Hints:
Elements: H1 2-10, H2 16-29, E1 52-57, H3 59-62, H4 72-87, E2 91-96, H5 99-122, H6 138-158, E3 163-169, H7 172-175, H8 177-192, E4 195-201, H9 224-234, E5 239-244, E6 264-265, H10 286-298, E7 302-307, H11 317-322, E8 329-331, H12 341-357, H13 360-376, H14 378-395, H15 400-406, H16 410-426, E9 434-441, E10 444-452, E11 455-460, H17 466-477, E12 480-485, H18 490-504, E13 513-515, H19 522-525, E14 534-538, H20 541-550, E15 564-568, H21 574-586, E16 595-601, H22 608-619, E17 623-626, H23 628-632, E18 652-658, H24 661-671, E19 676-680, H25 684-693, E20 698-701, E21 720-722, E22 730-732, E23 738-745, E24 765-767
Parallel strand pairs: 1-2, 1-5, 2-4, 3-4, 5-7, 6-8, 11-12, 11-14, 12-13, 15-16, 15-19, 16-18, 17-18, 19-20
Antiparallel strand pairs: 7-8, 9-10, 9-24, 10-23, 21-22
Amino acid sequence: MLLQKLSLCSRIPLDPQRHLCRLLTRPLTQALQSRAHGSSFAHRGELRQAKRIVVKLGSAVVTRGDECGLALGRLASIVEQVAMLQNQGREMMIVTSGAVAFGKQRLRHEILLSQSVRQALHSGHNQLKDMSLPVLEARACAAAGQSGLMALYEAMFTQYSTCTAQVLVTNLDFHDDQKRQNLNSTLQELLRMNIVPIINTNDAVVPPPEPNSDLQGVISIKDNDSLAARLAVEMKADLLIALSDVEGLYNSPPGTDDAKLIDIFYPGDQQSITYGTKSRVGIGGMEAKVKAALWALQGGTSVVIANGTNPKVTGHVITDIVEGKKVGTFFSEIKPAGPSVEQQTEMARSSGRTLASLHPDQRSEIICHLADLLTERKEEILAANKTDMDLAVSAGHLPSAMIKRLSLSPAKLNSLAIGLRQIAVSAQDSVGRVLRRTRVAHNLELEQITVPIGVLLVIFEARPDCLPQVSALSIASGNALLLKGGKEASNTNRVLHQLTQEALSLHGVTQAVQLVSTREEVEDLCRLDKMIDLIIPRGSSQLVRDIQRAAKGIPVLGHSEGICHVYVDADASVDKVIKIVRDSKCDYPAACNAMETLLIHQDILRTPLFDQIIDMLRTERVKIHAGPRFASYLTFSPSEAKSLRTEYGDLECCMEVVDSMQEAVDHIHKYGSSHTDVIITESEETAEQFLQQLDSACVFWNASSRFADGYRFGLGAEVGISTARIHARGPVGLEGLLTTKWVLRGDGHTAADFSELGNMKYLHENLPVGQTLAGQRDSN
């Protein structure tokens, strides 16, 4: 009987057999498991586990800007997301506004039409311009709009084979035990049958809300915010998503100068909030939303308040929240011991400005002290690293190449210390160096000087040696730094960061380098475009690509792949070929500057040199993948390469044959990644053509590809290798972390002084720069 009523209510030609099949199979296919209700989720990432979800749509989300009628496009995208989550096996409920707006549109249309007809019949004259609309009573609008609103939801959900049911409630339905039990029973039955309940207050009969009517800790139903909270707790929902027309909860009214979006709100933070005016429509406001959210949180339901009107995010705001992404304001009862990542960024920027203002000797002293700590406290570092290594090995999910990156040794720490001392020397003339000086006019002098970029975010995987290197480069360049390391190296990273802060404390800039140790997703960090100036990923090509996609509004410095080529020319020396090819491939196969493709001139085939190359690679246990042309020359060839654009990162490489140096260049341009490419030849003319024509960040002649490294270049260390065409390219050291600004020193000059009526003329004389820093002016 219930199934028939719901079928008639939804106006959907329901196939009972198909619907029954969905009901029977749903518990077997759903991956989500019901959890014991009573405590809310502590972290955003846990929202993925939410099974029963209430989505509250505020009036500003559902209605158009003119408050007459519904925002159909916005509503359609919300329905699509709810239906998708429902089909994943979740139990979705919607608490919606919009009946009054829908009814207002309908009644206005009817009144205008009625007035128009009456005037046409009685006067016969065109007096439409004198028509005025009466003030429409909200209850009447709600009565006229409820059926249309529900019909719209039904039509939209039908597109996703999802059934809906309308439930109208009032405050009395929650105060009366019998009615509350009936409501609970009805909703439980609807959810069991895979039906989405559409719930709204019965605004056609509801009395005006009474102020301060909450009794004994039970929230009163004054608006849809309180309704959604009460319903979520009553139905033991895991998550309540409240969509409004603001991004979330701010510490002061949105639009004011100092307003900041609160990422996570805790029950004890109410006193730090200043509320603004209510929404343009609806009877609630942010204060009502916070009160309802805290009440739901106390009842064991997690809450997120987010923007449902922003066209850039409306199409995925609900699914993003359920996936644990940083959207809106998340209400949590558990406050972490440390600062949030936003607070860490602000502390880093503030301390970074002080760092940039230090004398170069002071920055060098900090770096030298860090180098000393690496060797003096090596036992502490290696003990932490052993813990990480043991955990990684026992877990068994890390590839051998990553295990090797994770490992530290006394020799590696000594090498790091040497590199840091090189950086300390470079720090002497980095920040504030005058690049250009121009005398614009008499007593008007212009300088272009180097300055820090600002706040850097460096994301690195299981490579703890990256932390002191990047920290030293940031200190030398006066940049604030946020570090997000892989969890595989968490113990090592923690110790290295403590040593870095100990070194920074020499001159009171401890907070300039921050280690993000919260459960922050990389994608969420990449959204802090107002706080972070440059992102530098250090890790796999997949990590780099993911960050490049996620970083909207923040530049990313790096390379997505390291497909490095070595071309053996017809005029190559046997000894050099064997040495360079072995080193390029076998020295550190997991490095981004390791050879991945070996190009052989066809004249070398079936020569002793070719045999020696093959024998050497076999001895080193390098697996060879034949390119299509190379395979055609052989009767029994190695396995054919699946792609000529592969970064193996192991003792594997592709081998292909080319007819000439020019064909090698064309091959590299087509299949390479513009990282590092090598020619081995004794012909200077051929080599120079290769060096000139090849468009890669690093191009070498008779040298291993492994030289593409900041330390080997004499940069001390590198933050990465960039294949970009702008800013820094190749191994990026200290210089790549600086930008410039223009400083003009005048004596009361104005632009009018240089006009036709003025008495001054431009000189534009280039002055010598020398080795001076900004402010150290010469006598010219």
